[in-house]
Amino acid sequence: MKILSANIYGFGKWQDEQLNFGDKQLVIISGENESGKSTLRQYMLFMFFGLPPKKREFYFPKTGGKMGGRLTVSTQTHGEFTIERIHDRNNGEAECFFPDGTIENEKWLKESMTGIDYSSFQSIFSFDSNDLNKLHTLKADQLGEVLLGIGMTGSDQIYKTEKHLDNQLNQLFKPQGKKPEVNEQLMKIEEINKQLNELKVEENSYHEKQSLKEIISEEIVNLQQELAASRKKQTSIETKIQVSPLLTELHHANQQLFQYEDPSEFPENGVERYQHIKEQLLPLQSEYSVLHDNEQKYESELGSLKKQVWDSELFNKANVVLERARNYNHSGNEMEYHITEKDSIARELTKDLEQLQVGVELEDLRDLKLPFHVEEEWNQLKQEKSQLFMELEKVDSELKSILHQIKHVGDRNEHIKAKLVSQEKIDQYNQKVSDYDNQTKAQMFNEFNIDQKRKWQKESKERDKRSNIVIAVGSLFSIALGAFAFVAEIDSLLIASILLFVGVVIQKLVVAQSNRRTEKIFGKTDTVTRSQPKQEEIHIKEMKQTLSDQQTFQYELKNGEADYQKLYIEQIKLEEKEHFYRIKQKRLEKRVNEQTDIFSFLNLVHIDYWPKLYHILSNSVLKWNKYSHLESEIEKLQLTLNHYEEEIVLFLEENQLIVEELPINEKVNHLKRLIEKQMGLNNNIEQYTKWLNEVYDLQRNLILRMKPYHEEIANLWNLARVEDEEVFLKKGNNKKSREKLESRISEIKDQLTPLLGESGFKIALASKPDEKEDLLQEVRDIKQYIDEVEASIEDKRQSLSDVKSLLVKMENKEDYSIVKHQFHLEQDYLKSLTKQWAIHQVSKQILLETKQIFQNNYLPKVIESTSYYFNLLTGGRYINVFSPKSGNPMQVENNLGIRFNVNQLSQGTNDQLYISLRIALSEIVNKQYKLPFFIDDAFVHFDKSRTKEMIRILNKLATNQQIILFTCQDSLQLYVENEKNVHLQVL
Amino acid sequence: MNDKISFIHCADLHLDSPFIGLSHVSDRIFTDLRKSTFNALNSLVNLAIEKKVDFVLMVGDLFDSEQQSLKAVIRLQKAFEQLNKHNIQVYISFGNHDFLDGRQFDFNYPDNVHLFEEESVRHFPFNKNGKTVANIYGFSYKQRAVTDNKSLEFNPTGEDIYHIGMLHGSLSSNTDHDVYAPFQLNDLTNKNFDYWALGHIHKRQVLRENPYIVYPGNTQGRSSKESGEKGCYFVELENGQQSLEFYPLQRLRFEDLEVDASLCEQPQQLESLIEEMVSNNSNKIGATIVTLLLSSNSSNLVEWHQAGFLDDIIDYINESNLDTESWAFIRSYSLEKQTKADKLELKKGQHFLGELLRQFENQVDIEEYVEPLMQHRQARKLLKSFTEEEQQQILKEAEDLLLYQLLKE
After folding, report:
1. Which residue intervals define the domain Calcineurin-like phosphoesterase in the entry (chain B) (predicted)?
2. A835 contacts in B (CB within 8 Å)?
3. Most exposed among A159, A171, B139, B385, judged by the fewest C-beta atoms under 10 Å?
4. What confidence tens digit (pLDDT) does each residue in A209-245 have?
5. Can you tell me the ipTM of this complex?
């Protein structure tokens, strides 16, 4: 960028001023002090960057009029344009006018400046004598660092900032320090925190205190209860001491009482009641003992009588035996009568049997049994025998007649048989006749077949001919086609021709095959030879005649044999009939034999008389029966008599009643006498029994009278749960003693109850009374214990009130609350301090990092450029500048190759280095958009030659970037008079 | 239909809990600060008695469990006893700061106090003239965090009485705060409740009007973020009519104050300007802790700030402004514009400043830079690492500081 001209409407001392820099690269504005050089410089900056209102006010024209102006510049990218700013227009914002009429605003201008604002422009694109003066005031060891900073920002601010930040950081915090604010605050807070924790612990003890309070209160209540109980016990023991004698007696009585049994089992007034009953009972008991003596006397008398008397069974038996003696006599008479009758029947029977004379004796009748069916059987046998005889006679005569007929028929049949020929011959004749017939039929068929064959041969020949024509035409066509295909090279046609040829050949083969097959069928039919047998016909006719005769013979023979058969059957039937009768006859004989076996006497009698014999014998049997009945009656009576005799003897012997051997009648009499004596004894027994019963009645009467008394006694014993008088009386006395003791105890109770109470009395009753001395000791112990408890209660009350007051104190205490709030306030303060520290710390770190980046990325270029300008400025005395490396400050190298640290250089050389750095920096920072470089009286300390050199160099530099040099040295004019690139503006 | 009932709805008393972002206050202010939460409690009790309310609802965070002092519990107990004398019932649910398991002191509160001591929703009937006129529903935090939507557990009984829900939690959409017991507005309006007494959010807001769904805010602001009036709501319900009235309880307020210093050419001018504005303000609204927001169209402020003049001015004002009841205390200031340089333009430049500013744009690891302090034996215990917000602030201030230092003439 190049400033071409300025049109100042009003700015500080400048008003309506037109300045034209003539399109020159180096503009030297020279003037005396106070000539408005600095204001002009400000004006230019104002045009570029504007100014805040306050500052604008500072540059209001002294003579009034509007503040502002125009500045025409030209740039490489945008060409020529004019910036206009007016204080009260758009808040002093710029407008940029282009020759083509377009107008741009402040924003566009700012963007064109690419990151350069007023401040950075000041530090990069301008410097004045002050800057150099500052450099001169620096200490030697700072110089390198400051120059480095200048290499980066164009000023010494980096160095200053670093120093400032370090200072602040050290004031705020040091890791090992105590004084810095953060360190101090940390210690303070730690102290407060400690205090806070202590207070917290104290507050937390509130709960413990409160539970302590509850525990103590509870303890006091418990102790008070204990005290009351002890006092009560004391009183009770003292009472015990008072009533000690009574207690002893009570205990003694109670002990005794336990020795007696429970009296509840004994009836009221039991002993007296018992005595009274006994007095009543005594006379009755003596009367009873008299009766008892009589009873014993009668019983002994009865006993001796009962020994002599028979028992009733024996007595009854004796009477029965005696009664039977009468039947015995009656039976003897009856037996004698039966014997007489039996003998008469025996005689009668013997006589009848002798008359019959069939060998049957009297004794045989005993076993002869003639049941009713025997008579029937005997009659039947007689009739059947006579009928059978007649039947047999008839059968015999018929049989003879049949046998005669059979013989006749048999002879006739034999005659016919002789005329018959053999069967083989007949079959032979039959065969021959049938063969002849068949031959005649076959001849007729053969003639038809020959006709058919002739017809077919003709047809087959025609077919063969047709087939040959097809094969000829087909082959020709196939060859033609094949040739054409071969010439035309059409494969498909070639194949077709081959196929056609094959097809034709197959056709021919099929026709030939078919003809051959048909020929085979017809070939089989051979012609049948014909014969001519004329003589044979006659022979056949003969044979046919023979066959017909044989048939007639056979028929006749068949009829004859049928007749023979019929007769033969008739014969067999008759023979069977005869046989039947013979069997019947045998069966009859068997039945006859059976009868003769049973009744042997029948052998002596012909069967025709058997029915008559039956009647005689049955009568004899009836008489025999009567005889044998009498015989058995006699036997029975004899048995009865014997039995009785045995009975009486046995009876007497069994009962040892017989004294000596006596006849039967005497024995009966003896028995009679014995029975009478027994009857006398029984009467005596009856008498004594009667007396004894009377005694029994009296005794029963007495027992009834004594019963109430006995019951009363039993009742008393039962109540007393005893079994005898002795125990009863003992128990009675026991009860009386016990009642006495109980009444004494009751008396003592009446005396003690008011003192000891009901329960106290019960205890006293149960336990052995304490020794008085023990009781006195116990009272002393309790008194001492009570004193201790009272003291303890007093202690606890004291502690309770202490705890309570402590609790109230804690409740009202605000220490924890205060310290807590304090802690948080201090904490917040610490936080604000640490934040301050952090801000500085971050600033410093980022500054260092940026420095590092700048040193790496930009500084080498700056230094390189610096070297170039430094070389120029020093007229080649110094040829190189080195950026600081590893602890070494910035160094320069002279034309002899010797290196110097910057603090070893003279002031003037350092000034030159500074200018070189500034120019190099501005060049690097803003390569593409070079802003004019402002130099304000920078060379006051330069000698003439150096200044001249400086101007020369500036002139050279100005080819790259416009330089505007403000100076009060009019001598400069001399150096630039002839320079065409320099515009000199004298104010 | 139903008898009229009236009650006070408050929440987040945070009794005796410390203040945030204050340091180096005078003893007087320190005492006032420390007692402010109790003063608010006293005012609350006096208001309840004066209004003859039926009951008081305290919806969580009565105190901070971690910082709980005996004093807080005793004072609370005394307040309840006072209310008990006037037969005013108190319903308390505990929140994320005074969760049940974190309690350090157990006290026997008087009979008028009804504690929700379970994490599941329960209700207490409120009886008036011998009959139940309202059911009050609530729950307490057992642990610090309740992440379930508790509003779903609030189910009114079928009785034809008032149903009032006490819910310490936040709208699930509100992510400015720790989201506890999150709910959506629909969850509450869907239920047949007559009043929703909310707690947890310290900023007062009426979320919905029919029925009222209300955050009363806390009763005493404790940091500059909790500015303005702080207090409770006085509520009356009668036959479908409802009224809601806010009553401030705070002893002191946090306020932001904007001061335009464009006309101040000298620090002294600025000092008297600030002093005038601050005391006018506190005379109007009572004791105030002020955060200043300074602006100017000149670069003076930045220079004074960097030179430490502003700190001196504020210290001076704070020391001289103590005697009245309506004191004012400037806790901090911030500048509208921190530098006179045009950072945006500079950033484009190829020069050192441009590089420096670009350096700030890179990921700057502050934690690494501040390690020397954070590793310090004592600091390690007492300091937390800087929050993201603080880090941004530090970076910005560092940037301003560097620009100022590097460009100052």
Report:
1. 6-203
2. 386, 390, 393-394
3. B385
4. 888 888 999 999 999 999 999 998 888 888 888 888 8
5. 0.88
Question: What's residue A528's pLDDT?
Answer: 46
Domain termination site, one of A738, A769, A800: A769
CA atoms within 13 A on the CB side of A722: 18
**Does the residue A705 lie in any domain?**
yes
Number of H helices, E strands in chain B: 12, 15
In chain A, residues with a C-beta closer than 8 Å to the C-beta of B225 are: none
Question: What structural domains does chain B harbor?
Answer: 5-248 (3.60.21.10), 252-337 (no CATH), 341-409 (no CATH)
Q: Are strands B5-10 and B55-59 parallel, antiparallel or unpaired?
A: parallel
Residue whose structure tokens are 């130099």:
A935
Between A813, A818, A843, which is nearest B34 by CB?
A: A818
- The whole-angstrom separation of Cα A476 and Cα A487 is 17
Long-range contacts, B144-147 (Cβ 8 Å, 24+): B144/B96, B144/B99, B144/B102, B145/B96, B145/B178, B145/B180, B146/B96, B146/B119, B146/B180, B146/B181, B147/B179, B147/B180, B147/B181, B147/B182
Cβ neighbours of residue A873 closer than 8 Å, sequence gap 6 or more? A912, A915, A916, A949, A950, A953
Report the alpha-carbon distance of residue B105 to residue B68 in Å, rounded. Answer: 8
Q: How many whole angstroms separate alpha carbon A652 and alpha carbon A656?
A: 6
Would you say B32 and B287 are in contact if contact means Cβ atoms under 8 Å apart?
yes
Residue of B103, B395, B402 for testing the chain A interface, max A β-carbons within 10 Å: B402
Q: Coil, strand or helix: which one is B74? A: helix
What are the angstrom distances between the C-alpha of A767 and each of A234, A254, A741, A884, B302?
19, 10, 18, 118, 107
Mode of pairing for the β-strands spanning A963-967 and B205-209: unpaired
Of A753, A769, A785, the last residue of a domain is A769
Number of domains in chain A: 2
Q: Would you write out chain B's pLDDT as a tens digit for each of its 409 residues?
A: 568 899 999 999 998 888 888 878 888 888 888 889 999 999 999 999 999 999 999 999 888 876 677 888 888 889 999 999 999 999 999 988 888 887 776 777 888 999 998 899 999 999 888 888 999 999 999 888 888 888 888 988 888 889 999 999 988 887 777 788 888 888 888 888 999 999 999 999 999 988 899 999 999 998 888 999 999 999 999 887 889 999 999 989 999 999 888 888 888 988 989 988 988 888 888 889 999 998 887 778 888 888 888 889 998 888 886 677 888 889 888 887 766 667 777 777 778 888 888 888 887 788 888 888 888 888 888 888 888 888 888 888 888 888 888 877 6
- Residue A895: DSSP 8-state: T
- Residues A595-613 as b/e (b if ≥16 CB within 10 A, e otherwise) read beeebeebeeeeeeebeeb
Flag whether A86 is in a domain: no
**Is A459 contained in some domain?**
yes
Strand B89-93 relative to strand B113-115, pairing: parallel
Contact B402 A820 (CB under 8 A): no
Domain containing residue A249? 243-308+684-769
Burial B194-214 (b: 16+ CB within 10 A, else e): bbbbbbbbbbbeeeeeebbbb
Crossing angle (nearest 10°) for helices A907-925 and A859-873: 130
- Kindly report the number of other CB atoms within 10 A of residue A226's CB atom: 15
Q: Is A667 exposed, middle or buried (0-12, 13-18, 19+ CB in 10 A)?
A: buried
Interchain CB distance below 8 Å, A842 and B299: no
pLDDT of A337 over the 80 cut: yes
Q: Does B228 touch chain A (CB under 8 A)?
A: no
- Distance in angstroms (rounded) separating the CA atoms of residues A931 and A928: 9
Q: Cβ of B347 under 8 Å from any chain A Cβ?
A: yes
Domain presence at residue A170? no
